[in-house]
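Subject line: Sequence and fold of a protein, written as structure tokens
Body of memo: The sequence and its backbone structure tokens, given next.
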Amino acid sequence: MAEITLQVLDGVDRGKVYPKLHTPVTLGREEGNTVQLNDERVSRFHAKIQEDQGQVVLTDLESTNGTRLNGEPVQLTILRVGDRIVIGRTMLLFGSPEELGRLMPAPSAGFGHSDPDELNRTRPSSGATLNLDTKARAEELRFQLNYHSDEINPNSADDGDTTPRPTPPLPINLSPAQAAQLAELLLYLHQRLAHAAQGAEERADDSEVRLSKGGWRGVLGVTLDLAKYIYQIGHPD
């Protein structure tokens, strides 16, 4: 059972803090949710946060308007300190002021400040993982905090307005068969991408790289395969 904190950055409930919640945590509009949000675009039971094998997992519960993490639509994903969860018109920040302060201890960060309006003037990025350099992650988070919350549109459908996350670590505690399946899948995708990139031509001034139509079709094919895998993982039934 993990202990988590959620802070509402934007929406009708902005400024609210839900500290030290014990997983599993449900988020939704209906009474009975751990976090009940006053937002008509939030489904009755919208999303769930749970702990599994030492990781905190966010799952969209087949909500009407979906769930976004750092601007990207998700069905099932790992949460890290500093991640922004958007459901309906509500944006929540994952992590307590203390956890965020350990990532970025600079006073200018604003984390841990008692003024909720100052908290709403932040735009945090994704959090650190055990396999990432803490200083580099702090710099990334500090960079994202330069944005004013007015520049964030939780209802935007523009997938270009996303915050790239750091390279995630490989899953741990896999059985030998699961590890072999994962290695086979990654090798397949690597070979497909390597084959697609073989015909790429780089210009002498390094301004661009041109890809043949066949190579481009190969990249699109891998993208489609990845989209299918993501869907199948999020919808195991």
